[in-house]
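In this section we walk through a basic example: taking a raw amino acid sequence and producing a predicted 3D structure, encoded as discrete structure tokens. The instruction is simple. Fold the sequence below.
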Amino acid sequence: MRLVFYAAALSLAVSLLGTPMLIRFLRQHGYSQAIRVSSEGELYPAHQGKLGTPSMGGLAILGGLLVGYFGAHVIVWRAPSVSGLLALYLTVGLGLVGIADDYLKIFKQRSTGVRARTKLLGQAAVALSFAVLTTQFPDEAGRTPASQAVSFFRDTPVILPLFLFLLWIWFLVTATTNSVNLTDGLDGLAAGASVITFGAYTIVSIWQYGQNCEFGNIAGCYDVRDPLDMAIFAAAAGGACLGFLWWNSSPAKIFMGDTGSLSLGGAVAALAVLTRTQLLLPLFAGLFVIVALSVIGQVGSFKLTGKRMFRMAPLHHHFEMVGWPEVQIVVRFWIIQGLLVAMGLGIFYGEWVKQ
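The resulting token sequence is shown next.
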């Protein structure tokens, strides 16, 4: 378990100490994100006070994650696992898509960034290549990082043909990354919610490691390829988010940008796939799911009835328009995320107890 602690501590230190250096660099070069302002017939929350705040803070999160993960392995001189490297591949790959989006927002002052179709194509390329790679690299027991089975607490009897498996992983990755991206609209909201999610996956992975079928085919064991490395990865991601949150909490000194939100979404999706807990994702990423559904409901309602469900979507902006203070919204949404994650952990543990 030392590896998990080292990963969390290193990533926290790098993100906490590295973010202010990134802030100074971005401010010196005037790299700040464009802010949407209200116009006639199109109202937005009053965020003019955030004008000039640097963006691309996701670089600090990625840096903390990479140093935490690899640093922990170097300290104990242990080779990274295939599963850990694949999780990093998905996270960094989607981070690169986010960097391209942030580039347009910062350098071209286009608040909408990359065109939606282009962003989706980039996400699909990374997600599909990740899906293919997870079915390769069998270990001595023949286990690959992921299987083609749909998973809940572990793999279910539902085995997907390769084409459907690729579509399933693409859907999970795309839905998760865009949900985190939509949630990143208030200071500290996405970063704080991500800390809770990564904490849950750290607990799940540690439990899977202690009850792994590799140590004996006992009742209720988990046939997960590299559970300890998943705990290391989740702890590093959580530590990086926590260090970044110090500077991203209200009033934010820096925004994570799409570099951060897409990376975090990729990390969450990778953990769901590689820990074989895909159908628990709606609880472990519960707040992100709620925010995404608010956007879907808003668009669907307007197209079908001509009326909007909320004053503004995503959901957190609705409460801004109602008059809730930003900090109040963020804290209450964190509480919702904590309750949903606790429910997911309870269901996960309850399934094992019944074995």
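Looking at the output, two observations stand out. Residues 2-283 form one domain. Residues 108 and 211 are 51 Å apart (CA to CA). In the next section we compare this with other chains.
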